[in-house]
Amino acid sequence: MKVIKIDKKTWAAGLEKSRSGYKLFGPVKEKDKSFAIFKKLGEKQMPDLKIETRLSPKSLIYPQAEVMFEYNTDATKDDCNLMKTPEKDYSPRAIIGITPYDAAAFLILKKNFDTPEYKDPYWCKSFEASTFIGLAVNEPDSTDFSTSTKTGPFDTSGLDVLLVDTGDDYLAQVVTPKGEKYLKTAGWEAGAGGDAANKIEEMKKAAEAKISSHISFENIKNKSILELYEADFWDDISFACINCGTCTYVCPTCWCFDIQDENKGNKGKRHKNWDSCMFPIFTLHTTGHNPRETKLQRVRQRFMHKLKYFMDKYNDGIMCVGCGRCVRLCPVNIDIRTVCKTMNS
């Protein structure tokens, strides 16, 4: 394990130096100062690493709204009815301060957007252009159950560099060559010494010990789909839901989208927009038929996808990294941990 020591006094200077090779993104407080979102950092702007974002940084790779093609229907033009890819910037970028479980979520999204059969070129190019500089979570939130989902507060599976805050310094664990390249560009190359790896391991164990929330899903895999689909608990689970879609929008692993054309005169654009299985028209057919017309059907779909369908298809755990956002932000207190326990038992 290679570990670089970064004195916090050199933090700002190193980030500025890294701009020579990377566009920087990180958490920035919004105007009311109560929460932060991931966005491109302006000149001299530093990422705020003291507050977790309500939304995950998913939108940096998979935008909430993205233009796929542009076209015109003017018969006098040579490119009439041709779909053209708009100019997009895929130059190297560094995402600073991402949590380990948010980074791991991109590996789940990768199963959908980057497969041997189908590749979303926009997602793949954005992902490949990105270097993930994660920040270990020393003080997990009470709703954090990431250790139950194969991730955790110090997980490195989706990262290029893991930063560990030790007070006056950051210990930067190099995970990939991309991460090492970024650290060199920033001018951080001094080794942290022989005890650094042990220090990181001790802090990892301490952080994981603070996680009091846990889930189990070992029994779900062995249950048949119909056994869970036809269970009698879905009415109780779905009763409070107001179909607002908050759970899907704050979730770092939700990948559903809609495609729409916007036209004005002879010009048009085709957009890919986030969508939600919680919305009543999500499965509405052009015939008027809706196979999930009731709230119960939509709530059941969300949790069956996260906790059963994904597991059966990929045999790689559940479609969740345990960040706890949906638990904290659901306006009617529907808790995926409780649903998982119910399904598992």
Topology:
Elements: E1 2-7, H1 11-18, E2 23-29, E3 36-40, E4 65-72, E5 93-98, H2 100-113, H3 121-129, E6 130-135, E7 161-165, E8 169-174, H4 177-186, H5 196-209, H6 225-229, H7 234-238, H8 246-250, E9 257-264, E10 267-274, H9 295-314, H10 325-329, H11 336-344
Parallel strand pairs: 2-5, 5-6, 6-7
Antiparallel strand pairs: 1-8, 2-3, 4-10, 7-8, 9-10
Helix pairs in contact: 1-4
Please give a structural write-up:
The protein is of the alpha/beta class. The protein folds into two domains: 199 residues, no CATH class; 120 residues, no CATH class. The chain is built from eleven helices and ten strands. Strand 9 and strand 10 form a beta hairpin. Helix 1 packs across helix 4. The radius of gyration is 22 Å and the shape is globular.
Tell me briefly what this model is.
This protein has helices spanning 11-18, 100-113, 121-129, 177-186, 196-209, 225-229, 234-238, 246-250, 295-314, 325-329, 336-344, and strands at residues 2-7, 23-29, 36-40, 65-72, 93-98, 130-135, 161-165, 169-174, 257-264, 267-274. By secondary structure, the protein is an alpha/beta fold.
The class by helix and strand makeup works out as alpha/beta
How many structural domains can be distinguished in the coordinates? 2
What is the chain-wise order of helices and strands?
EHEEEEHHEEEHHHHHEEHHH
Write down the overall mean pLDDT: 95
> Number of DSSP strands?
10
User: What spatial form do the alpha-carbon principal axes imply?
Assistant: globular
Helix content: 25-40%
What proportion strand?
15-25%
Low-confidence stretches: none
Distance, first to last CA:
40 Å
Task: Please give the radius of gyration in angstroms.
Answer: 22 Å
Largest sheet: 7 strands, mixed
Helix segment count? 11
- Strand order of the main beta sheet, please? 1-8-7-6-5-2-3
